[in-house]
Every structure is written in C-alpha cells, then in structure tokens.
Amino acid sequence: xxxxxxxxxxxxxxxxxxxxxxxxxxxxxxxxxxxxxxxxxxxxxxxxxxxxxxxxxxxxxxxxxxxxxxxxxxxxxxxxxxxxxxxxxxxxxxxxxxxxxxxxxxxxxxxxxxxxxxxxxxxxxxxxxxxxxxxxxxxxxxxxxxxxxxxxxxxxxxxxxxxxxxxxxxxxxxxxxxxxxxxxxxxxxxxxxxxxxxxxxxxxxxxxxxxxxx
Length: 214
Fold this sequence. Notes:
With 214 residues, the chain is an alpha/beta fold. Helix content is 46%, strand content 17%. It has nine helices and eight strands. The strands form two sheets. Strands 2-1-3-4 form a four-stranded parallel beta sheet, sandwiched between helices. A four-stranded parallel beta sheet has the order 6-5-7-8, sandwiched between helices. The longest helix is centred in the middle third of the chain and has 17 residues, at 117-133. It is globular.
C-alpha cells in the first residue's frame, strides 16, 4: 500500500488534508507529522535557525516509516522542501506549487493574501519562481491581514474568516487573481463572492500529489 506523509505546522490542517486524501488517494495510507511551534519559532530570531533541521528530521522520520512521498501543508516552510527531499531520499511536494502555477496563468496582476509575514514572503517567492519557469512576468502584490492569525490561534474562526473575506474583497478590486497563502485560509473563501478567481492550495496540492503517485 502506498504511504503518504503530511507534514503540518498546525493541527487545524490534519482533518482537511485527511479528507482530501481519502477522496483523491483512497488506496493510500496516511501518516501525519506535526510540529506546531514552527510558525511561532520562525518569528523568533533565537529559534528560527532551528527550523530547517527540525523539518529535515521529520522528513527523515517519514522516510524511515516507509512514506513514498511527503507533502508540506504549510507554505511557510515550502523553501525547505528541496533540501529535505535530498537529505531524506524521498519526494517532498509543496502544497502551494499547483496553486502558484494556476495563479500565474490566470492573470497579470496577482494579489497574495496571508495572515503571517513569514508565509507571505515564501509564497511570493514561489509565484515568481513558477512564473519564470512558465515564461511569464506577473505583477505580484501582497497583504498581511492584521489580526487574522491571532484570531484563529485564539479559536475565533469567525473573526479570522471575516477579516480574510474583507481582504479578498479589497484585493479583487485591484487584481486579476487572488492567492490565499495559507491552507488554513481556504474556508474563508467559501463565504465570499468576487469577480476574480480566489485560489487556495489544499485541493490542487493533493491532486498534484495524487498525480505524482499515479
């Protein structure tokens, strides 16, 4: 049986990715790895340097446990996928890569929305990387949504979703496509209706994972 490993930085992503795997990879066995301090530690100068080694250790653990592929469900660590894959000898996919490909193909003006600066920077970098590969030169802007991360961490999902929804509406007035940088933002898009595509990473990411294992 194929075994896939999801590496999470927040427990909130375990259930939705499990559901997507059950739908899109019904014959695969899923194992979850979680370090729920990574995002906080990336914002801490004294601890940020520890993150690459911790991520690599988790990927090595997944490989030792028989994982055929690993997916990072957090955009904040997407830059660590390639070195971790090389170190552990197992394919490591970035959840947001498929979304980035769709975004740069969707229009010239791309607006990135994030609830953390530590996620906004790697997401805009990924978009530029995928645009260059596609021979495109989009105009990429970003907004870090003040208060949304603190709201969701405190358990106030309603406030998080409201703030994200308001940012989607603001961005839609100035962009051809909206990119939600964090997988945990995906639910907020469901309550908003705008005239431009609003792209989220979980489903296209797991679809690409499934295609890679086919």
